[in-house]
Amino acid sequence: MNTERLKEVLVQARQETSKVIIGQHDVVDKALIAIITGNHALIEGVPGVAKTLLVRTLAHVLGAEFARIQFTPDLMPADITGTNVFNLQRNEFSLIKGPVFTSFLLADEINRAPAKTQSALLQAMQERVVTIDRETHALPPNFTVFATQNPIEYEGTYPLPEAQKDRFMLKITMAAPDRAEELALAQRTMTREAPENVLARGSVQAVIKPEELATLREELGAVVMRDELVSYLVDIVRATRTHESVLVGAGPRATQSLIMAARAQAAISGRDFATPDDIKTMAQPVLEHRLILRPEFEIEGLTVAEVIQQILQQIAVPR
Fold first, then answer.
1. How far apart are CA 66 and CA 43, in angstroms?
2. Looking at residues 106-118, what average pLDDT do you find?
3. Quick one: which H or E segment has residue 63?
4. pLDDT tens, 229-286?
5. Mean pLDDT of the chain
6. Domain ranges of the chain
7. What is the pTM of this model?
8. Contact 311, 244 (CB under 8 A)
9. Strand 104-108 vs strand 66-70: parallel, antiparallel, or unpaired?
10. What backbone torsions phi and psi does residue 70 show, to the nearest 5 degrees?
């Protein structure tokens, strides 16, 4: 098995996405990594940086079904999963499927809803099934959750519980565009080439069919990761559990996520082998949302990103 088809699709997906999303190349790459590894991603950024547009565009480019849930404080779990409704004509209950029955699910502003509603996604994300009235229903094989959230310090937000955060492979931070990108956006907004118009007109082409995604994921198995690199990666994750400033470190699921992310990063870079730089590149997005710092270190202004960089500097890089 080789990775040529995977590389080709990733290049095409980037090109098509760039017709709509201005800049944000790193963000697009990380979103593609979550998709081709069959995992979920948490997207964080202030309102208006195209979080929703990014996911809609990727769903279109990869030929996948798309649904969106706007999370609000009064959203109920049944609004996500669906419910059985009694049909008077047939004299029986029939299932009204919720928006979770899709391929790409955008959980918009997930931290606006309380924990009970957030947890309705847990089984779906982990097992790709949903239980409604004690009956289990399978979700599509390509089921992927992209959850957007505003930074926690914003009013009216509920921090995600640890069990839910751990089920997201990556945390993707979307910053505001730089001046050149924002200028390009402003100029395009005055024409028919405004990002939303480009997507609505159908100018963006789907590069694969939904059923091809499974084959592409299998191609990731051809990306070689040497044993010493696996040891290096494991040492990085384990170091998060013993660092003096960390209260809660990353668990074994983080190790699995970092291996998959590093191999996908190699594929996106056009290689069929992973390097230490692939692991370093993906360490922060994989680990950042999983670590909790001790309060005394947070008060001093230390950030999780700085802790991860300290760990990367301490672990010897294999030759």
1. 17
2. 84
3. none
4. 999 999 999 999 999 999 988 999 999 999 999 999 999 888 889 999 999 999 999 9
5. 86
6. 4-215, 223-314
7. 0.87
8. no
9. parallel
10. -90, 110
Domain 223-314: which CATH number of 1.20.200.10, 1.20.1600.10, 3.40.50.150, 1.10.8.80: 1.10.8.80
Round to whole Å and give the CA distance between 68 and 142: 16
Burial of 34: CB neighbours in 10 Å, binned 0-12, 13-18, 19+? buried
Question: How far is C-alpha 89 from the geometric centre of its chain's CA atoms?
Answer: 42
As a whole number of angstroms, the distance between CA 176 and CA 190 comes to 20
Question: In 3-state terms, what secondary structure has residue 210?
Answer: coil
Q: Which residues are CB-contacts of 159 (< 8 A; sequence separation ≥ 6)?
A: 111, 152
Contact yes or no for 270/5 (Cβ under 8 A)? no
Q: Which amino acid is at 249?
A: G
Cβ neighbour number for residue 191 with a 10 Å cutoff: 8
Q: What are the structure tokens assigned to 167, written together? A: 């089920």
Q: Quick one: tokens of 179?
A: 């001046």
Which pairing describes strands 92-97 and 82-87: parallel, antiparallel, or unpaired? antiparallel
Both tokens assigned to 177 = 């565009």
Asked if domains 4-215 and 223-314 share a fold, the reply is no
Quick check: 222 pLDDT over 80?
Answer: yes
Residue 150 dihedral angles phi and psi, to the nearest 5°: -85, 155
Tokens coding 127 = 């097992």
Provide the CATH number for the domain formed by 4-215 in this structure: 3.40.50.300
**44: which strand partners?**
149, 173
